[in-house]
Specification:
This protein has about 400 residues and is of the alpha/beta class. The chain is built from 14 helices and 17 strands. Bound molecules: ligand 7TS.
Length: about 400
């Protein structure tokens, strides 16, 4: 993995006089040279608005952005490029769906999400239900950190219109039993939306195999710039949703009285998109495919196992969802009462180690586990065992100081 690390300039810097150990990848990943160069190249040679110019530069920018859409289509195995909508991140993708459903859901309908969600997969559904009168239900979270799928048969009825949950939990790193939930949801005629923010950076995602109606993710967690994201949707379902942002480029004909909308994907891409970001997202896809998703998954699996084994040997730590299927992240706490995750985070930061602490935008999970927050170490392809060894040293130091 040495040559991979060399592609990330930021990994050469020091933090608090120590080499940076970056273990906050679930918040955002660092960017490889390939992505940084795509950004520079865009502004040095290609910058123009897309889909609206007859001039050469505009056409070249349009081609580059649409090429990137094709790369994403191929990356997630979407049947059509127009099913790949460029958004500004997972939050934006989910809001696109919930706002689009405003005219479809009624007060007789139900929405099913889970207790293991990021706020961005809770709040928009609460807003939709408030707006439409639909009822919001939750798949419960067990103390073991996994969803109580045995409750599904009781929760899913012919009133359930959509089931939305994450592929991988950002707070606990748990991989959810997608197939089981999708099959049961489809059996009652419900649509399924998967929040793939924490899955896409770590594993091969095939939306046809998953057979979900929607798949949402962020570019910045998969080596692309912030302000990029994707919503994949099945064509016939996307066609039923109303666009939630109106403006230029999403129209067919505008008269003073009314507007007819453009077809997919442009109907949902009002205004000037993040052209540079979307092109750089294509470069991030290239970066990941050059390494290979299987290689990325295998490397991270070994690192997670190594970390879990090392942490398990330390007395006085609570590791959450310890035995669950896992990807990307490990959450833990020093067990002693009164020690907050942020105390540990500050000690680690003095050692140049970046982790996230707190509730990870998942307050319902924390309230279920009856804790204010956790320390979370989250991984990317450039992390190595040396990073883990430093983390373990830091955790032991924190235990000595606080435990
Ligand atoms: N869904 C999941 C599962 C996430 O992990 C995040 C961000 C989002 C949605 C929202 O993504 P955004 O790109 O629109 O902000 N998660 C985190 C995290 O765990 N730490 O910082 C951001």
């Amino acid at each position: 993995m040495k040559s991979i690390r060399a592609q990330f300039p930021i990994l050469d810097r020091e933090v608090n006089g120590k080499p940076l150990i970056y273990l906050d990848n679930a918040a955002t990943s660092q960017k490889p040279k390939k992505v940084i160069e795509a950004i520079t190249n865009y502004y040095e040679t290609l910058n123009a608005n897309v889909h609206r110019g007859i001039h050469t530069l505009s056409q070249e920018a349009t081609t580059a952005m649409e090429d990137a859409r094709g790369k994403v289509q191929n990356f997630i195995n979407a049947p059509y490029a127009h099913e790949v909508i460029f958004t500004y991140g997972t939050t934006d993708s989910i809001n696109l769906i919930t706002r689009g459903l405003e005219g479809i859901l009624t007060d007789d309908d139900e929405v099913l999400i889970s207790e293991l969600e990021h706020h961005s997969n809770i709040v928009p559904w609460q807003m939709l239900c408030e707006m439409t009168g639909a009822t919001l239900r939750y798949i419960p979270l067990l103390d073991s950190g996994v969803l109580d799928v045995e409750r599904l048969d009781a929760l899913l009825t012919d009133k359930t219109k959509i089931v939305a949950f994450n592929h991988v939990s950002n707070a606990l790193g748990v991989i959810n039993p997608v197939k089981e939930i999708v099959d049961k949801a489809h059996a009652v005629g419900a649509w399924v939306m998967l929040d793939g923010a924490q899955a896409v950076p770590h594993m091969q995602v095939d939306v046809q195999e998953l057979n979900v109606e929607f798949y949402a993710f962020s570019g910045h967690k998969m080596y692309a710039p912030t302000g990029t994201g994707v919503l994949y949707g099945k064509e016939d379902i996307l066609n039923q949703l109303k666009p939630y942002r109106g403006g230029g480029e999403m129209i067919d004909v505008v008269t003073m009285e009314k507007t007819t909308y453009a077809g997919l994907p442009f109907k949902f891409e009002a205004g000037t998109p993040n052209i540079c970001g979307n092109i750089a997202l294509g470069a991030a896809v290239d970066f990941m495919l050059e390494i290979g998703m299987d290689t990325i998954a295998q490397h991270e699996k070994e690192l997670l196992e190594y970390t879990l084994n090392q942490l398990s040997e330390i007395d006085g730590l609570e590791i959450y969802a310890k035995n669950a299927p896992r990807s990307g992240a490990i959450s833990f706490n020093i067990q002693k009462t009164g020690v907050h995750s942020s105390d540990v985070g500050m000690i680690l930061d003095r050692m140049g180690i970046a982790v996230r602490t707190g509730h990870h935008c998942c307050q319902p999970i924390m309230s279920k586990l009856d804790i204010p927050g956790t320390v979370r170490a989250s991984f990317a392809v450039y992390n190595n065992k040396k990073d883990v060894d430093e983390l373990i040293k830091g955790v032991k130091l924190a235990l000595n100081m606080l435990g």
